[in-house]
């Protein structure tokens, strides 16, 4: 952060983005597991 930024303030957009990325990571992991299972069944 820059020295001119206000202290003790985490931008809401940043927190929202981090939460979205966390959810996206979980969804990607689940999709990979499902893909492996489907490939294994065939």
Automatic annotation (TrEMBL):
Q: Give the matching Pfam families.
A: MmpB
Which keywords does this chain's UniProt record carry? Membrane, Transmembrane, Transmembrane helix
Q: Which InterPro entries match?
A: MmpB-like
Q: Where are the transmembrane segments?
A: 20-41
**Domain of life the protein comes from:** Bacteria
Query: What name has this protein been given in UniProt?
Result: Uncharacterized protein
> What species is this protein from?
Streptomyces chiangmaiensis
Q: What is the lineage of its organism?
A: Bacteria, Bacillati, Actinomycetota, Actinomycetes, Kitasatosporales
């Amino acid at each position: 952060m820059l020295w001119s930024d206000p202290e003790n303030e985490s931008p809401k957009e940043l927190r929202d983005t981090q939460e979205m990325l966390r959810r996206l990571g979980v969804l990607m992991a689940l999709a990979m597991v499902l893909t492996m299972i489907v490939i294994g069944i065939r």
